[in-house]
Each structure stands twice: as structure tokens, then as C-alpha cells.
């Protein structure tokens, strides 16, 4: 593997993917995109003069397709992989949870295994605020609950999220009455 190999960006047509590609290109790094669709017009704008070349050279595949991921890593021989591909749409998460599991978990395993098999020097697994539940307080810190009872696909939480007012004060733990962060059970406790 050559250190001059490209950076392979999964989810490269998405918002974060095209902005990362632009930054890497501006830094002189070669880039290859892997995604299920080519970048939309507003994302091509971010890529600027490189949009046509990146789109023509793009690998159109889903990360949940093991053979496609393996082939992409084998043929690209990247110096690094940045894995951003994910299903984060609340509607898709609610209506097609198995697809989300295949792409978000299975796709990550496929990318990591492809990187291991072909000795990719660096693999970065990206995430975003899209993985968090309804904000309980701001700024969000490491003590913020990651999963709240009653949230997630098939719980009706998507409708509640749209209509529920945002909390205006620091939450208190219903188990101890303490403010956030001071209760040892904070990750498994419902917030009042």
C-alpha cells in the first residue's frame, strides 16, 4: 500500500462526505468517494471544479454489500478510509429498522474488515449528532443520556419529538433528585 494512496470516503456524497473531500483535496490529498448515489447539485457545488472527476471516478455501492466494499478497498488501495456512510433519517429508521441495522452496523463491520484485510494504515469511523436522542440539556456533554426509554423506531417517539417542547432547565434524576451528572445511575435512569 502506497502512503500516497487516496482517502476512501464512504458516504462521500453526503453533507459531511463532500465537505471532507473538499478539505482533503485542498490539502493535496487524492480522494475516492463511495456512496449509493452521486452527489446532488448543492453538494457538487462544494466539490467545485473537482466534482466531475470525483463523480466519474466514484464507486457507486452500499457499505452493507460486503463484496462491493471488499472490491472498493482492493482496487482503490487507500492510504486511509473515512467511514461516514449511515442511515440517519428518522423516517427510514422508523419504517425500515432492518435496513438501518444492515447499513449502520453491518456496513461498519464490512469497512473495518476490508481495511484489516488490505492493511489500510488508518480507518476513521465518523458519527454525528444524529445518533443522539432528544436533547435533555445543552451543551451536550459526555454525561448526556444516549438512549432514553420510549425513544427509537416503532415507539412513536418521532411524533413526540416533533411536538414536545425542549427542556429549558437542567434535568433532575427521578431516582435521586440530583442534577445531571451527579447520580451514579444517570445512564440508566429516566429523566423527570
TrEMBL record:
Segments forming domain NAD-dependent epimerase/dehydratase: 7-137
Biased composition (Low complexity): 165-178
Signal peptide (residue range): none
Classification via InterPro entries: Epimerase_deHydtase, NAD(P)-bd_dom_sf
Region annotation (Disordered) ranges: 151-178
Gene3D superfamilies given in the database record: NAD(P)-binding Rossmann-like Domain (3.40.50.720)
Database matches in SUPFAM superfamilies: NAD(P)-binding Rossmann-fold domains (SSF51735)
PANTHER family given in the database record: DTDP-D-GLUCOSE 4,6-DEHYDRATASE-RELATED
Family classification: Belongs to the NAD(P)-dependent epimerase/dehydratase family.
The protein, known as: NAD(P)-dependent oxidoreductase
